[in-house]
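From the shared-data thread, chain only:
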Amino acid sequence: MKKVNKVVLLIIPLLLLTFGMMGVQNADALPARDQLTALVTVGDESIDLREFLTPNADQTAWIMGEHHDLVFGNGSKMTLGTLELWADPALIVAFSGIDNVGGTSFSIAVLTPLIGPEWAAGMGYKSTGRIVGGFSDGGDGTIGNSTLATTGLLGPTVNGSFVSSAGPAVPNTVVGSSGVMSYGPHSVEVNGVCPAGGCAFFDMLVSFTNQAGDAGKNDAFALTATHVIESAPIPEPSTLLMMGMGMIGLAAYRRMRS
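Structure, as tokens:
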């Protein structure tokens, strides 16, 4: 009988400690498709990319399973190689394209909601944006583009407010016979606190306008951008209480054995 009691005394604090630790972990949930934004815009044409997304096997991300070639009215082209929206949460996009006429604006916007108590008001977060890639010349020997708005090539945001901007505009650059210029990697990291209503979503916008006219005709690009946001959750009082009771129970059990 004493042996059974000792087993019970051991199991109870272990259960309390386990449930307490479960309360500390982030409960990431996969948002519904209609809660996402995945939009590519070239010139004045936009295409909703959500139809290309499907949940992965363990329901932790919306993934574009294969690359897609898009052709727009002015003849410009874009190939989407990677598009991933993770519940962790993280956003990843890799795409390439060619400006058929010069002066074309290209942009990709992706957004996913932030789900879980770790994004409540007053909770801390760390936002990290990164972009890398390259540009190639269409024949005039120079490469250049200008920014849209003030975001640079990559503008990560939390709750619609720019928390950081990575990737400066490319000034007109003579590339000579090679015709190629690497870009980045450029990255930025910002720490913040969720506002009164909590952190509802985070997103990123990759955008630029190619140099106009013959100088920009047939210029090409390939870019990969990521935005990762990490939370700094604070355990709730009930979670702390269960963890504390579990630790006290384990200490009492050790004393009994000694």
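The chain is about 15% helix and 45% strand.
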